[in-house]
Amino acid sequence: MLLLVSFIAENFYKNQVRATPESKSSDYTSWKKTIAHEDLPLALVDLEAFDSNLKKLTHMIKDSGKTIRLATKSLRIPALIHRALQSGLPFKGLMCYSIREADFLFSQGFNDFLIAYPSLQNADIDILGNLLLKDAKVALVIDDLQQIKIIAKSMEKYSKPLPLIIEFDTSIHWGQLHLGVRRSPIRSLISLKQLLLDSKHYPSIKVVGVMAYEAIVAGLTDKNPFKKLQNPLAFLIRRCAMQHIAKIRSEIPKIFSELGLTLEIFNGGGTGSFNLISNEKALTEVTFGSGLLCPHIFDYYSNISLKPAAYFALEATRSSDPYYVTCLGGGYIASGAADQDRLPKPVMPEGLKLLSAEGAGEVQTPLQLTSKNMIPLGSPIFFRHAKAGELAEHFNEVLLVNDDKSTYRVKTYRGLHQAFFVK
After folding, report:
1. Which of 201, 203, 196, 205 is nearest to 166 (CA)?
2. Are strands 113-115 and 91-96 parallel, antiparallel or unpaired?
3. How far apart are CA 324 and CA 357, in angstroms?
4. At 409, which helix (H) or strand (E)?
5. CATH code for the domain of 121
6. Cβ atoms of 298 and 81 closer than 8 Å
């Protein structure tokens, strides 16, 4: 059975599978020259690859009539957020991960925020109230009547009702088996309808839409070299889940219509599933972000073909044994379930791998050379992070590299003294 599923998976995506190009010695020589006078460690973004990924992703929804909401969590660099929004492509606004982040971005000239993660603190709700008074366009995701009651009470002193988005859980539940993430308790059309009815009793808030993010598909790799035995099953889960989710999402606009409510925003999407949702008529907007930088986790999806755009460089400072080299720093581990695919990946020069006994260390990262090419001490070694925006939490600045290899620096959130989950 497993072999059959594996055969189906391979053939279903045979026209979409594209291996991420391996680095070449010429690439390393070019990048080494580009950063020859830079201090290490260093984070950098290849703008040619960034722009290529931007065009490729937006092309997937070219004729769908949908707008795009950029996930700021996946960048955390205002200059790159500006670059995407000013591309002339059909962007509507931003999906933020923090109320305080939206407040900061509004001060930077951005607008139209969907805040995907709720907060019930009075100080945060006051920020939203004040944003509305400044004519900011903002909506907060919620999923529970208790949340509505708390938010509505805090919003009573403001003249404008706070727009809310209900998150619909697209996980799959078979008895005690739960497949997907644990976010929202709204898992049926009945529970969605009831929450919509309950929300009508609170004039200081207004439900304007739904977010039904297919996290079970967007977050599940099916070409993962560290989970080869699970890949066929992951492929099957993704395919079945996508059909189930599309069917559920097609019913949601009918609920709003039945209750005489306007569905202003119906949001879905993520880089890991972006090409699979382009034909869904129910969605009014779709979200991506991480794909613009293409961290190495996207090498492990059978339906994605993007260019690596973000790197960090460390200095090779030691060599404990022949064919081993040790870098200074490098412990930039991605969030999520701890596994090998959360570690950074050395990509330039070729022929390097992490040691299973040490991984990526906070102050040193040893590497084994799988080829016979020695690396002179003092040389840079380039890595890809497993995720996208999280790399920016480790650097105050990022070096942006143009097509002609000219460079300039820009600030990250951290470099602008903005750390929304750190006190």
Report:
1. 196
2. parallel
3. 14
4. strand 407-411
5. 3.20.20.10
6. no
